[in-house]
Write a structure and sequence with these properties.
Blueprint (H helix, E strand, L loop, with lengths): L6 E6 L4 H12 L4 E8 L7 E4 L2 E4 L1 E2 L10 E4 L3 H13 L3 E4 L15 H4 L9 E3 L3 H17 L3 E8 L6 H15 L38 H13 L6 E8 L6 E8 L7 H9 L4 E3 L11 H4 L5 E8 L6 E8 L3 H17 L5
Parallel strand pairs: 1-2, 1-6, 2-5, 6-7, 7-8, 9-10, 12-13
Antiparallel strand pairs: 3-4, 9-11, 11-14, 13-14
Helix pairs in contact: 1-9, 4-6, 4-9
Length: about 350
């Protein structure tokens, strides 16, 4: 069957921060769209969005919104995905879901195209987009795993407040102004809006992202641990994570310690490997103070890697610093990239 020149694409959560980035990314990539349907909650329905110079009215999402849709990009919260994604599949759409609703479902592929694109072939109508902090980490680790093997990963994250939504960024800005002007303020969103306590994020670091689990790890940390094993097809991989929120608007940073399976590997070999890795930009020149920083990655699709060095005590251990735009590679771009892969592989026609 001849492949279509354009596809009917639906974006669910079109007025949210990630939804808006998805729409912008579709436009930037000149994605082959024959029809675009923008969907949201009842509260946001009726909003106007411009795409490729044409104004669209956002509609309220319901089970019948997906008739004749080829690809549905979801980013409206896990409960919305759980309710509506099965209806989209019933109507014949392939769902790319940006929430945690289906990530650990054994029947749903969890995909980062640079890492496990072939897993798309095993979809049953729904494909999960991984957690933002997981995505950039596995992009950086995949070439290492393929060439030198991988035994252990310990990651500490330095995550931007936009990971908690636009309202969290606004709270950061307002708190910063209040503190500078010696004014009163009342934290209301971070670390978790639905949790018991809220803390100042301006001029602070909060070592909690998402709610604590019974094992003492947060849900964000468990997402990184479990998703990494699933994406890399390495259930035996040793992974530990500590996730911290910093007063940065956009761009997640990560300090990675990893151990390879191969003897006598040096840091220059790791650098050379990553310099040519898909989706990776190497910024590693300590003599000239060149290394990745979140302020420089905003608006860019790549994963930036630097500070690569050998551990001083463990011969197979290495450290590196990984930075990426959490709203793009961490969410919108990875979703659109999955959709592009579906077309490239002939999975959606």
């Amino acid at each position: 069957m001849e492949q279509k020149k354009g596809f009917h694409v639906a974006v669910v959560g079109a007025t949210g921060a990630v939804g808006q980035q998805i729409i912008q990314t579709l436009e930037n990539r000149d994605f082959p769209i024959s029809e675009l349907t923008l969907l949201s909650s009842a509260r946001s329905a009726g909003s106007k969005v411009t795409f490729n110079g044409q104004e669209y009215t956002v509609q309220e999402a319901n089970p019948e919104s997906f008739k004749d849709v080829d690809i549905a990009l979801f980013s409206a919260g896990g409960s919305v995905s759980q309710e509506l994604a099965p209806h989209a599949v019933e109507h014949g759409a392939i769902v790319v879901d940006n929430t945690s609703a289906f990530r650990m479902d054994p029947n749903v592929p969890l995909v980062v195209p640079e890492v496990n694109e072939d897993d798309l072939h095993s979809h049953n109508g729904i494909i999960a987009n991984p957690n933002c902090s997981t995505i950039q980490m596995v992009v950086a680790l995949k070439p290492v795993k393929e060439k030198y093997g991988l035994k252990k990963v310990i990651v500490s994250t330095y995550q931007a407040v936009s990971g908690s939504g636009a309202a969290a960024v606004q709270e950061l800005n307002e708190q910063t102004k209040a503190i500078i002007n010696n004014e009163e303020y009342e934290p209301a969103i971070l670390p978790v809006k639905s949790d018991k306590k809220h803390y100042q994020i301006a001029f602070n670091a909060i070592p909690q992202i998402d709610k604590f689990q019974d094992n003492g790890y947060t849900f964000e940390e468990m997402k990184m641990i479990n998703e990494t094993k699933k994406i890399m097809h390495m259930p035996e991989l040793q992974v530990a994570a500590t996730c911290v929120r910093l007063p940065v608007a956009t761009g997640h940073s990560e300090s990675l310690y990893f151990e390879v399976d191969t003897d006598s590997v040096n840091a220059n070999e790791i650098k050379s490997l990553l310099e040519n890795a898909p989706g990776v930009v190497l910024q590693d020149d300590p003599d000239n103070q060149i290394y990745p920083m979140p302020a420089d990655c905003v608006g860019k699709n790549d994963v930036f890697v630097g500070r690569i060095r050998k551990d001083l005590d463990e011969d197979k251990g290495f450290h590196m610093w990984v930075v990426s735009d959490n709203l793009l590679k961490g969410a919108a771009w990875n979703s659109v990239q999955i959709a592009e892969s579906l077309i490239k592989l002939g999975i959606v026609k």
